[in-house]
Amino acid sequence: MHETSAAPAVVHGPPTTFLSKHVFSLDHKVIGLQYYTLALFAVVVGMVLSWLMRIHLGWTNAAIPGLQALSPNGAPGGVMTPEYYLQLMTMHATIMVFFVLTTAPFAAFGNYFLPIQVGAEDMPFPHFNMMSFWTTFTAFLILVTAFFVPDGPPLAGWTSYAPLSAIGKDAGPGQGTGQVIWAAALGVFCIGQLLGSLNFISTVLDMRTKGMTLSRLPVTCWAWFITSCMGLTAFAVLMPATILLILDHVAGTSFFVPSGLVLNDQLVPHSGGSTLLWQHLFWFFGHPEVYIAIIPGMGIVTHVLITNMRRPMLSMKAILYSMWALAFLSYMVYGHHMFVSGMNPFSSLVFSFPTLMITIPSTVVVLIWIGSLYGSKLRINTASLFALGFISMFVSGGVSGFFLAQPSIDIMLHATYFVVGHFHMVMGVAAMFGIFSGTYFWFPKMTGHMMNETIGRIHFWLTFIGTYCIFMPFHYLGWAGNVRRYAAFTDDFLKPLIPVHQFITIAALFTGAVQLLFLYNLIHSRFRGPAAPANPWEGTSLEWIMPSPPPWNNFGGKDPVVYHDADQYGVKTASGADYIMQNSPEQALATSEGD
Amino acid sequence: MATTLPPPKIEILPVPDRSGNGHVGGGQNLIPDVANLRVAQQYSPPASSSAIWVGIAAICMSFAAFTSALIVRQASNDWRHITLPSVLFLSTLLLLASSVTLEVARRRVASYMLGADSNIASPRLWLYLTLGLGLLFVAGQYMAWLQLRSQGLYLATNPNSSFFYVFTALHALHVLGGLAGLLRAIRKLGNATLRRSTLNATAIYWHFMGVLWIYLFLLLWLKI
Do A272 and B73 touch (CB under 8 A)? Predict the structure, then answer.
């Protein structure tokens, strides 16, 4: 009999060397932590870039110490040129959107907790998983090199519209090498995301443990599954776009460069490309991307709230269907970024309609959260505070979307600070709050130590107030006509708004400084925090049955058996606890029976 | 007095290991819902069987993006039709033949693994044949490029040729990946670690390369 050798019962063996344990690890938990560390580093870089931008906007002629050393051409005497402002803005946005908002809620927490929550020992393709992290890391390194090439990073924005992004170095500093580096970094990032999404989908479909039917999956698993389905299809469209952009730069092709373009009194030799094509390709990816950034946060917030409310959501099915609806509709709305691009105005109507429709599932989710919170005795801890903050930010940032969804209003608001305020509140703050909530919630499990609760609450309140102070005024600025992506407000109608910008800058610097509290808490608690029990929050899902931190093979070689969904809170049990863990065969007592 | 319910009775129907990988993987829904005492079957789909379709979906999306780029770009007024290099007809036949040889190889491997046939040379030969035909296909693509070059059509000559090179190059890159997968399967067959699910996934991917090429070939023939 030439039957193949029996497949190994374990997905991979225990790590033996230092490299296989901490660097090139096949363990999904280590990979998740690596992603988290990458996101942490990236967010610091992105924040510093934003501070530089904000200082310049508030005090345009101020010399920023050290900036000339970073870029003598971009900041002679420490005063930023307008081009350098745009270069910093491009890198700020690219780093934040890709390496923080796509990485932390999805890749970091998802890699760590998805296999655990489905009851698996690891993901089915650990080598692909390891490659996905190192590919993402390589993409980050490639992107950062753009700072150090002679002309600097690109200045076309993270949206990188053609023809500015496609015609090469004559378009401005950084548009030659810097733009190619940017496109290459994004292309490599796409590969990392595709490998990761593959693993996530296969884990949910094929690695669930005994008894873990799809209906018993915790909401976070659904959120990661939906996000990975979106990531698979969206990033698979960004990669072709970046390939075509690179070819336009290095191979003389003309995918995005129109004919008849005159630059610096010279006819650009390309011909016949379509600038609108870039926008279509980019935004077909770009809109699902922002839902990729927010849906894991929604899952985390739901999970944290259920655990802390000690009762299930009013309707988990509605939340799940809404998340699927968000994912599905996100592919149909992308043209709302292009209302004023010159495409047929009728198509604006066609995109505006699903954009307004997509507010419905978002609202359903928010109403279910709020309705479930009503009358609950929510346990207040830093994780639940950030979850509440997420709801607040998501609503505040989301309602401005109602305005932007309508082409007639968008004509006035497009490319103003109104848009910047909208997406910063939903992505820059709400999604970040989701990351914070997840961090405070799962830190005990990941490290075996509790975070300092007092510092955590101070961090929350100061960040909450600080981010409102930063981003709410953006909406006012937008209505007042403040154009975005301007390095200085020298027009007469913009000059009176400079004091608002100065206020925002001070708020931004203050809020940035507050994050040092978080960093301190993170690092100090990792080493000196009080020991964490296995289940500090009395949660029901499978991550709480293992010790903190979990061993390399999660469940110690024994598959858990699941009897319930993750919503068994607020139940009466024989043992007196108000919850039943997913792997417990205990049944809830019927409440009609007395005693 | 409050009572707890005993765990529900479970009936497990044994299912043969069709996947050939020893029931590795999850999906073992042995414990039915309390409210629904339906009978659960023990069934573990191997992870690679769904993963390969996920990968194929991603590749389809990429080529769909390129196709839409082609359609938009065609609308410009500098579109000049080019004649498809004749070698492509031959290379298409070679790729389709390689799908046939791969299916023959799969059947030979299956009968070898079940012990019905103890000759490893035959399945290995057919796998190598598939590999060879795949390599010939890639060589045919390169010859097509040479034919275009001889007509003075390079990557940036006109938008038509740009898309031709981009489409064929990307497809060839994915075919090279498929060849690597075939090599891996041959190596594993040799040292008796080949799982049926691995061969199935490799075969699905390889057939997809054929289907994708037929689509691209028709696209290039009719549109370019």
Answer: yes
